[in-house]
Design brief:
By secondary structure, the protein is mostly helical. The chain has one domain. The chain has nine helices and no strands.
């Protein structure tokens, strides 16, 4: 699956889902740099209470538009570390993310250096590329 195909799947998904938005509203979202820096530059609303900028924008505008769409989506997914983005991807694809979101919160609450990156890796351990690709493929074929 190419990144074009992967992101194409998410174009029709909602911008907000309950669990992934809750993660951001509860204070676990990114505070600076990365997609937040891009949003500031583009004068896009930044408000954790409303989970903005939303993760659909994060994936499709902040990330995808700056990436080669012909790359393997598996490789790109394996480099994603942002917990809220990974949770949105999982939830919008149809996974129940409540348990893994709580695990990510616990990792971040430990306060270790790079805890958000560790949380992202934990999410990818729980929602593997193979699981995600299967879920996407099943929905495309319906």
């Amino acid at each position: 699956m190419t990144l074009d195909e992967f992101c194409g799947f998410f174009k029709d998904k909602q911008a907000h889902y309950p669990e992934s938005d809750s993660f951001v509203r509860d204070g676990y979202g990114q505070k600076a740099g990365g997609y937040i820096k891009t949003a500031k530059y583009r004068e896009i609303k930044i408000d954790s209470e409303s989970a903005e900028p939303n993760q659909k924008w994060h994936l499709l505008d902040s990330y995808y538009k700056r990436t080669d769409g012909h790359k393997a989506a598996k490789r790109c997914y394996s480099y994603l570390l942002c917990p809220e983005l990974l949770l949105w991807i999982g939830e919008s694809a149809g996974f129940d993310i409540k348990e893994v979101a709580n695990e990510a919160r616990q990792i971040i609450d430990n306060g270790e250096k790079w805890s958000r990156n560790k949380a992202g890796r934990k999410i990818r351990e729980k929602i593997t590329w193979d699981m995600l690709e299967k879920k996407i493929t099943e929905q495309i074929l319906i």
